[in-house]
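Retro notes (design track)

What went well: tokenization of the new backbones is finally stable.
What didn't: we kept losing track of which sequence belonged to which structure.
Fix going forward: every design gets posted as structure first, then sequence, in one message. First example under the new rule, 80 residues:
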């Protein structure tokens, strides 16, 4: 396992249990990271595409994990 794949795996482990399509997206991220660690095909010509795809895959995984900016006390200034 290369350094990027190791980092991606570590980062995704921090998400905890994966649900829905997240396990498939995680496997895609691992595969993309492995390809990047391997230098991409065609003498590195695919690296930019692989990097973009990995960023998009990770963003999609995180999209469902975004927390609301609203806090429980945010409406204290508003009268009931």
């Amino acid at each position: 396992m290369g350094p990027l794949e190791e980092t991606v795996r570590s980062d995704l482990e921090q998400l905890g249990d994966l649900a829905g399509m997240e396990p498939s997206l995680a496997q895609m991220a691992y595969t993309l990271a492995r390809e990047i660690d391997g230098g991409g095909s065609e003498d590195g010509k695919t690296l930019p595409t692989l990097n973009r795809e990995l960023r998009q895959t990770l963003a999609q995984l995180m999209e469902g994990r975004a927390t609301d900016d609203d806090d429980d006390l945010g409406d204290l200034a508003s009268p009931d």
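Added context from the reviewer: DSSP finds three helices and no strands in the chain.
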